[in-house]
Every structure is written in C-alpha cells, then in structure tokens.
Amino acid sequence: MARQASSLSPIATAASLIPPRPTLDELQKAAAMCQACELWRTGKQTVFGEGEGHAEVMLVGEQPGAQEDLLGKPFVGPAGQVLNQALAEAGIERQKVYVTNVVKHFKWVSKGRLRLHQSPNAKEITACRPWLDSELMLVKPYVIVCLGATAAQALLGKQFRVTRQRGEFIMSPLAPFVIATLHPAAILRMPDSHVRESAHRQFVADLQKVATQLKSRT
Shortest CA distance to 65 belongs to which of 123, 121, 118, 127? Predict the structure, then answer.
C-alpha cells in the first residue's frame, strides 16, 4: 500500500534534506522522509545504505527490490543472496562492506499480485543523488563497486558501458579504485543455467580483483 501524501510539495532533489555535518544514522533518518521524487508514493519505505561506517568497499546497486522494500534493508532478497555467495567466494566479508543503491525507493509496475522491477529514470536518479554523495563523503571507501549499468553510469557517466568495461579499474575522483560489474539481479534473470553459471563466475572474478586490491593495501 502506498503511503499517504503529505502537505509538502515534492522538491527537485534531496539536497536540502541533507543535515549539516551528518552521520550515517542522521542521513538514514532524514532519508526516511524523502519526497524528492514521486517514487515515495509507491515504495513502502526508503531503503538506505547499510554496513561498516568506514568500510573499505562500497557496493552500489540500482535500487531496492521488492523484498528490500518490504524489509527496509538493501540486498536482502534473491539478488542479495547471489551477492552474498559471490562475496564469500571472492574472500570478501559482507559484514565489512557498505551496500547501498543509487535510488532509495523501489520502482515497480504491477502484474497481477507481483510487483515487477522498473528501472529509474534520469529525473529520479538526480533527485536521489545527494543521499549517495553523502554516503560516499562519510564512508570514504577505498574501492567502489558499481553493480550494473544504472549505478555505473550514475557514478562514471552516461558514456560508460558495463558490457565493454566490466572488471576494469576506472580512474575517478570518487575513490582510489572504482570498478563496475554485473548486477546480481541480472544474473538471476538469465534464462539459461549455463549462461547464469558463466556470469556468476565473471561476477566472482571481478570481486576477486577487489579482494586482491585490498590485500595489496595492507
């Protein structure tokens, strides 16, 4: 059920909602009231980032899914299970990373009783961007992992193509190392089991590059 509209008018971006000198907890509380785009009307709740406050690795996805929308936590649904497995295979502890999304509300279309994922548009991404920028500022990750095209293009520019540049470390002012890879949800959507297995191996290989980079830092 969508939340009832308040008397507040939607704003162009969430920038004015960012508290002065915020903590992650303060950001999360402020984001819970965000109406910077229309997605707050259909999402059950804001799904903010979660994890180590000064994590070396920040994983950035597109938006929460149906399970995340219900539970209020990022990457806890089927895609999150794929992510957890891949992180474990790559030797990265999920508890020591920070996971978040470019857009903090679930965008969906109805199909019977199902709520099917729908990609956010440029206006929605722009509206939500101040939350992600604030997370980056506070966490200060050593490595940013962009999960999927939406996250990669939001952080690295519209010209970025995951299909061509997946698994490469990209120069960026956002962090010492930035890399883009598949979104775990994209792996789940692949209809052929052999293709899914191959994509999963590629996903793990990209995360292993992150693990190797972390080890070289110590």
Answer: 118
Percent of the chain predicted with pLDDT > 70? 94
Hey, is 200 helix, strand or coil?
A: helix
CATH superfamily of 20-212: Uracil-DNA glycosylase-like domain (3.40.470.10)
CA-to-CA distance for 81 and 13, rounded, in angstroms? 32
Would you say residue 117 has pLDDT above 90? no
The per-residue pLDDT for range 197-218, each reduced to its tens digit, is: 999 999 999 999 999 999 998 6
What is the per-residue DSSP string for 54-102?
T-SEEEEES---HHHHHHT-TT-SHHHHHHHHHHHHHT--GGGEEEEES
Helix (H) or strand (E) holding 149: helix 149-156
List, for residues 185-198, the tens digit of each pLDDT value: 999 999 999 999 99
Per-residue pLDDT, 218: 67
Say how far residue 81 (Cα) sits from the centre of its chain: 15
Give the Cα separation of 59 and 210 in Å (integer): 11
Q: What is the mean pLDDT of residues 136-150?
A: 98
> Which among 95, 98, 110 is positioned nearest to 2, based on CA atoms?
110
Element (H, E) at 126: helix 122-139
Helix (H, G, I), strand (E, B) or coil at 106: coil
